[in-house]
Structures are given as structure tokens and as C-alpha cells.
């Protein structure tokens, strides 16, 4: 269960969307100006990968900073318990309330084949979290996490790890997105036994490996099959806006390394452009 919860924590925002902007191909960006005495860095991660090795530029940026800030504080010992409490739908709803009897049978068969568990045993879990349990199967390899890799370096440097938001705030997003829309995603995955998801994820990984954050955003924004695209204001835009002041506060106190999902970087409401609007200089590290 602990491994599943950690996978869910790192997979929460693997499939999200954002409007495209003309930005250089880079995952690492330097933040300066606007009163900062030392540079901080912004790094776009992907939450599941086959190889989470950090390149020299990233390692140097980690050396040059004194604090690691991720989307959430994954060092928080209460994270596991908080996630367990936040996985369930409110008002006693279950999957059966969201789909037809025939659709429920389709999802139930899929869950049994993929997880070896009866759907009835997890019927009141938010549909997104059931879908997220299958994300590791999209890779075809043991899952590695950039967040874990970043934390390992921070720990070796005896630096603190913090979050831009709480796990409760992340989990609440999946109460704001209608459960019915989440169930639609789950049903689509069940109908073709993850075929569409695997194809889409492989395309996304290619773009990420090429550091093409524009291409990633365009691809995800065009994927109308995902409820996360339909509700990108809740998944990305609102959260990005809430992060800007926090990023500035951390960066003004000490040089900080920020690691967030790459889908948060680009777009009119992406972190890069919002930081620039706030007066910071944000330039890519090539």
C-alpha cells in the first residue's frame, strides 16, 4: 500500500494540459532579478520515467541552491495517512453511482485483470486514483521518479525539502473535478485495456526527453479525451497562480531549486510567464 500511495503521489499530475507559448526547449530555467541577490532555478519534471538520472546542469543548480521545493513536501511523514483519507469520494458516492451497469462490468473486469482486485473493494475511491494505479503499466519498466532523485541530492546536502502546496490542496482538486468526468477517463482506459494511454504516454515521453515543453503542452491540450484537459483551470492554472508568491518568498530568503511537473512551465498561465509578469527574469539554461 505504501508503494501504491507513493506512486499515486508522483503520478497525480502526469496527464495535464496548458496553452502553448513560444519557449525554448529546456527543462531547467534560471530565476533572477526583482530583488533577488542570488539565482534560483525552476526545473520541469515528469512524475514517472524509466530513467530519472539528473544531468550536470541540474546537479550544478542543486549545488548552487540551499533549499529544494517540490509541488508538495514529499518528506512529510503524514503524507501517507493524508493521502489515504483523501482518496475517497464524498457523500458516500461509489463508482456504481457514476456509470451504467454495463459500464461498471467493463471497469470491474479491467480492474480485476490489471490489479487482481475486485472493483467492489475500491468502489468509493475517486475514479482518478483508480486510473492512477495503472500508470506504472504505461512505462513497461520499473518506475523511477525525478522527485525521488532530487530529494536524494537534497538529503545528501543536508538541505530541507518543502512544498508549494499541501497534499490536502492537491487532493481537493479531485473533489472539484466532477467524479463523473473522472469515471469517463477510467472507462475509456478500461475499454481498450490501456492501449490509448500507452500510445499517448510514449509520445509524451519523447517530447519530454527532447525537453520540448511546448510540444508537450500542445499534445496534452489537444487530447480532448482527458477530463484533466477539460478542467485545466483547476489542474494547472489556479495552482500556478497560487505558487508565484510562494516561489518569490522562498527565492528571496535563499537560492532555491523548484521542481514541478513540466506541464506547469509553459502557457499564458504557466509558471515561467507568470514569474516574468511578477517582475522576475526567467531564462532557460542550455
TrEMBL record:
Residues 1-20 form the signal peptide. InterPro entries: TraB/PrgY/GumN_fam (IPR002816), YbaP-like (IPR047111). CDD domains: Tiki. It holds the Pfam family TraB_PrgY_gumN. Keywords: Signal. This is TraB/GumN family protein.
